Amino acid sequence: MTGDILGGFAALANAETFLYLVGGFIMGLVFGAIPGLTATLAIALLLPFTFAMELTNALVMVMAIFMAGIYAGSVTGITVNIPGAASGAITTMEGHALMKRGHGAKALSLDALASSIGGVLGALVLMFVAVPMSEFALLFRTPDKFALVFMAVVTVVIVAKGSIWKSLVTVTLGLMISTVGFDNMVAQGRFDFGSANLIEGVQLLPAVIGLFAVCELLLQGGAPKRGVLDAPEFKVTHRDFIPKWSEIREIGALTYIKSSVIGVLIGMLPGGGASMASFVAYAEAKRVSRKPEEYGNGSHEGLAAAESANNAMCGGAVVPLLTLGIPGDSVTAIIFGVLLIHGLVPGPGLLTNEMATIAPMFAALMVAAVFVFLSVLVFGPYYIWLARMNRGVLYAFIAMIAMVGTYASTYSVFQMWMALAIGVFAWGLRLMAYPLVPMLMGIILGPYLELYLRRALITSDGDVMTFFASPISIGLYVMTGVFIYFLRIRAPRID
Amino acid sequence: MMNRQVVFALFILVLDLGYLLQALELPLPFARGEPGPSFLPLILVVLLAVGALGVLVENLRGEASAGEREGDFALRSVALIALTGGFIAAFEPLGYWIATAAYTFAVGWLFEQERIGPLRALATSALISIGVTGVGWLFFQQLFDLFLPQGMF
Description:
By secondary structure, chain A is mainly α. Chain A has one domain. Chain A is built from 20 helices and 2 strands. Chain A is globular. Chain A starts with a helix and ends in a 6-residue tail after the last helix. Chain B folds into 2 domains: 59 residues; 69 residues. Helix content of chain B is 74%, strand content 0%. Chain B is flat, with a radius of gyration of 24 Å. The termini of chain B are far apart. Classes of the chains: A mainly alpha, B mainly alpha. The interface between A and B is large, with 70 and 79 residues.
């Protein structure tokens, strides 16, 4: 295993692969930082290109986008008080308070340092936990696999923000979409209205493009012009971005490590995501802090806790995808698609059989985490300009990549129409404040949920007790109950 | 807000009904000794109905989550849908260059006109169109060697 991981780092020494890493990092940085754009959108737009890429390059690029995109969500939050992504909301609260007091460079450097530490720790956990977990997952039988997918679906519903009913609606719509097309188990077409295109089912690419790119474009059509005229003065030099040792000691190693562990664990949770990671780590840091009164007014500790956690989440989120075949959030759901496109099926056997292929992904995550800190030293003084990106250029580019990308990777005008139709429907859902991530998870997990459900019932002659016959299944149902209790009934709150 | 939410929940219920009618055309569960192709769909029909009714009741009782933020409807979004539909229809007949240049010009103009006014936006949108279409060609055809239609002209 160690040899494979070292081989992963060696793969990054290839000039072409390294360029993909840097390109992905910059793409993630720009998309993560610009309000309204996200790492998910960046990876969704990249998806059509991955058809033509070598797998290693595609995985390396995706990981770099993921790490940089999650980090950059806080950059414009700190500088102009508009977080690039929801995961940057808490950092925005603390970081922009520092910015208004003239400590913008300090906020950005502590933010980047915490992100790097969290990212590296998350990548380390991924490297050392993934293989043992994958070997354990080989013990799973069909009813256990059903319990696992069921847990993922339930967790996705309960962790979504807002109304749980809306979350239930969208995950069910996603599951329904996954039932369209040919049923391999009994050779029967379903919900295809006799269309030769629909008999293949709804492909992942138009679904992802529709849900994240087209929908975002339409939402931005209704968004007012951004104003950053009241942005604070931000005249700094590169040297100002080197954090002071006294500030790092004041935050303390324990804050970095504990927040990173929280981030990794939440990342492993289906539907967890960066927002929840930063929120829980921040709440925990505040709970044990000796200076809780500083929280909300520019607390270094609070900022570091939130950022360590949301970047550590990246490593954690990849663990269930690679070991169990369960994507933890929208980004890993799209990575799931990238692996499928290249003929790799995420799940228990993947790391056992393809560790050498996957290892560059681990290495890329760690190197991208280091890049985060280096990036603030290089680009820090120019970060404020990211919030002033021209919307005409941006959305014309997104519209072109989304539509032409769908065509170029499927050679099908029908799939372009499909992406538009899903995008318009998703836009309607977003206008009504329905969450979209559960829908994507439904589309991806649906075929597995149905396969394991039906296969378990067939092999047990319809005996439903088969779902509760093994300790693994029972353990997974108990975990589902625990998640419901702690994530919905007794969810953490920030006072 | 409440009315829109209720109407949308009813729309979801109508979709659910349509899906149910299609599911009922499939062999019934366990009709051939196994769960069959309609087993999960019928469970999903119930789940979607529960979800939509939950939203409906939540809104009729005025218990909708205070933290929820609805998106802003705008005619520009409708224009974007129409433009994208037009682009898809014209993509193969007109080819990548003409269709994409026209599409990106129009999308660029929709966002630029609010910043610098409709007339000046014509000029900047033309530049955006040339730049974005060129970058797309470089990426898709030159860098990744993907096929783009040439059109009839």
